[in-house]
From TrEMBL:
Compositionally skewed regions (Acidic residues) per UniProt: 250-261
PANTHER family linked to this entry: DNAJ-LIKE-2, ISOFORM A-RELATED
Any one Gene Ontology molecular-function term assigned to this protein's record: unfolded protein binding
Statement: the UniProt record of this protein carries the keyword Metal-binding: yes
Domain CR-type: 52-95
Organism: Pseudictyota dubia
UniProt keyword Zinc-finger, yes or no: yes
Chaperone DnaJ C-terminal domain span: 23-230
Protein name, per record: Chaperone DnaJ C-terminal domain-containing protein
Length: 303
């Protein structure tokens, strides 16, 4: 049905409208989005050759009326697309043209942004050719994650580096060699000093992505830290003794009578099991599921 509308509007002089636009995905590395790049891409398009003539069979309508005899005295009038012009209303010849386009990837362009070439899609009679759009598809990067103009990197540091200082050398997206290091006395923590468990994050100003159209204004580089603690028994008793003397707030175990105080050691645990302890009592299901929900909420806040 829409074909009739299209046909009559095209041929019926409803004014030229634009042909369909084409979207081509264009995979771009984060490096190229940082530095900008021009790539040459070939596209194939149909162009009209010679004159466009109005179809005689349908008088440019793109559709013809057909009268069908259904029975004695019964006539049905139906509209169908014109065979002569394939419903176009015009008769014309096309040929394929290969066109090389210079695609300018601007510094700071983002995922799904379009680079438009006006009127470069297939040509159609009586209407403007549509556009060719190259749609930027940002490729994943090994090191950086991007959000807006900001970059994020995850760094694992040892407990030694976390306490005594660390430096990290890397090559930025534009090839600059960069070292990020802690100031003297600066401590990297396993998580932020907040009520909820929030990853420990620091930022380096202006080392994110350039802004599109304003490339000298850059985003920031976020560094999310993970502190790798020593494993059980990795430290020798001597090392532990030294650390106990050096680090603040050592443990002060009080003298106690083994007959009066019960001593325990700890096993590894999973917070998802919190609330599942004890023996099950029949008929107390409601309380059980309630406890489970509570345990999961604690888990969410921790992760
Ligand atoms: Zn026709």
């Amino acid at each position: 049905f829409s074909m009739f509308f299209g046909g009559s509007r095209r041929g019926g002089g409803g004014g030229p409208r634009k042909g369909p636009s084409l979207n081509h995905p264009l995979k771009v590395s984060l490096e190229d989005l940082y530095n900008g790049k021009t790539v040459k891409l070939a596209v194939n398009r149909k162009i009209i050759v010679g004159d466009v003539e109005t179809c005689d069979a349908c008088r440019g309508q793109g559709a013809v009326m057909e009268i069908r005899q259904l029975g004695p005295g019964m006539i049905q009038q139906v509209q169908r697309p014109c065979d002569e012009c394939s419903g176009q209303g015009n008769i014309f010849k096309t040929k394929n043209e290969r066109k090389v386009l210079e695609v300018h990837i601007e510094k700071g362009m983002k995922h799904n942004e379009k680079i438009t070439f006006r009127g470069m899609a297939d040509e159609h009679p009586n209407r403007e050719a549509g556009d060719i759009n190259f749609v930027v598809q940002e490729k994943d990067h090994d090191l950086f994650k991007r959000k807006g103009a900001d970059l994020l990197v995850v760094r694992e540091v040892s407990l030694n580096q976390a306490l005594c200082g660390f430096s990290w050398n890397f090559t930025h997206l534009d090839g600059r060699k960069i070292v990020v290091k802690t100031r003297p006395g600066e401590v990297i923590k396993p998580e932020m000093n907040t009520k909820e468990a929030v990853p420990f994050v620091k930022t380096v100003s202006n080392e994110g992505m350039p802004s599109r159209g304003n490339p000298f204004v850059k985003g920031n580089l976020y560094i999310l830290f993970r502190v790798k603690f020593p494993e059980d028994n990795e430290l020798t008793p001597d090392q532990i003794n030294t650390l106990r003397q050096i680090l603040p707030d050592p443990d002060s175990e009080m003298e106690h009578d083994a007959d009066e105080v019960e001593e325990h050691h700890m096993d590894n645990a999973d917070l998802r099991n919190f609330g599942k302890g004890g023996a099950e009592h029949r008929g107390s299901d409601a309380y059980d599921s309630d406890e489970e929900g509570g345990a999961q909420q604690v888990q969410c806040a921790q992760s």
